[in-house]
Design a protein that fits this description.
There is one protein chain. The chain is of the alpha/beta class. Helix content is about 30%, strand content about 20%. Strands 5-6-7-8-9-10-11-12 form an eight-stranded parallel beta sheet. α1 packs across α4 and α6 packs parallel to α7.
């Protein structure tokens, strides 16, 4: 029986609002891809992201366009050449991984993890707001080992001080989402260093980050919007100390595995990150993150509810997926 591909859109309410330098949203819009064959159905979830020129409509169209390839039995390697990196390819790629696991009985973790996967400490995101509110959020989550603090406005210095005071023992990652400028980056890095920040993520706009090659980096700097696939790594090695791998950027687990291994060869630290989405999006990323230095897979914690058989989150860590969810 030939595979049958389908996709649909879902909306998942966010607890409160999720705000970063580019705006705010109150629900996570995801696209779920299903590939059915021989009584089994593989699932993959993605998040269309306007920053990368994606919409729900464009992602659905890309998935529809690759339907003939999938129905003819095309697998993950052919998909790498048939689709561009991005959310659409991620959903199809992860559905193929899940389908293969269900058809063969061989869990994905057996193919991609060097050792049995374990629970991983994960960041918890403090959404962009005024300094007092962000301090309140930080204090309420100060027990967590690592807080990811959204920045990108005129109050960034005040926010850094407020969050550090509210969570004096937590590790802190600052995520500016391209919101700093070449005029502010030097001084804000110094403030971050004084506050004992562990990592600064994407301080400058992609394509406008050359200055990072020429100025001191007292805190390690991580590329996010500047890096999508393994081919991007070499040209950024003098600008960044770490990279954030997201399946919605790489276009799936297949390319992400290549990217992770190449990044380690070059000498980058590796973060595995996510969009705001359900546990179905996080599941393959948890397996990918088993050997990462930083894990940022808190997406489901930001929703009002999650899928059945969703990932288990303790106060500090996220556990590998159960077979009922994915893989």
């Amino acid at each position: 029986m030939k595979p049958i591909l389908s996709a649909e859109t879902e909306a998942w309410p966010i607890r409160g609002a999720f705000t970063l330098s580019r705006g705010s949203k109150t629900e996570a819009i995801v696209v779920v891809c299903r590939i059915a064959r021989d009584g089994c159905t593989g699932l993959g979830e993605c998040v269309p992201y306007a920053r990368y020129g994606e919409s729900v409509q464009s992602v659905m169209a890309q998935i529809e366009a690759v339907t003939p390839l999938i129905e003819q039995g095309g697998g993950r390697n052919k998909l790498l050449h048939a689709m561009a990196p991005g959310a659409a390819r991620n959903a199809v790629d992860c559905a193929l991984w899940d389908l293969e696991a269900k058809l063969t009985g061989i869990p994905v973790q057996s193919l991609v993890c060097a050792a049995p996967p374990r629970p991983l400490p994960t960041c918890y995101t403090i959404s962009l707001d005024d300094p007092d509110e962000m301090a309140r959020q930080a204090h309420a989550n100060a027990f967590r080992p690592l807080l990811k603090v959204k920045l990108g406005g005129e109050q960034d210095e005040d926010i850094i001080h407020a969050v550090r005071s509210a969570a004096p023992d937590a590790g802190i990652i600052l995520d500016a989402n391209e919101g700093w400028t070449q005029d502010t980056v030097h001084d804000l890095m110094a403030v971050a260093a004084q506050a004992g920040v562990a990592l600064i993520e994407q301080p400058l706009p992609a394509g406008q980050d050359e200055i990072l090659e020429r100025i001191p980096r007292p805190v390690p700097v991580c590329a996010d919007e500047s890096v999508h696939v393994a081919a991007d790594l070499e040209r950024l090695r003098e600008r960044y100390d770490a990279i954030n791998i997201k399946l919605d950027k790489t276009g799936g687990l297949t390319e992400a595995l290549t990217m992770r291994d190449r990044a380690r060869e070059i000498g980058y630290s590796v973060m595995i990150g996510c969009m705001v989405a359900t546990s179905l999006s996080m599941a393959p990323a948890v397996l990918l993150a088993q050997e990462a230095q930083y894990v940022d897979l808190d997406g489901p914690l930001l929703l009002t509810r999650d899928r059945p058989h969703g990932l288990h989150y303790s106060d500090t860590a996220v556990s590998p997926p159960e077979r009922e969810l994915w893989g």
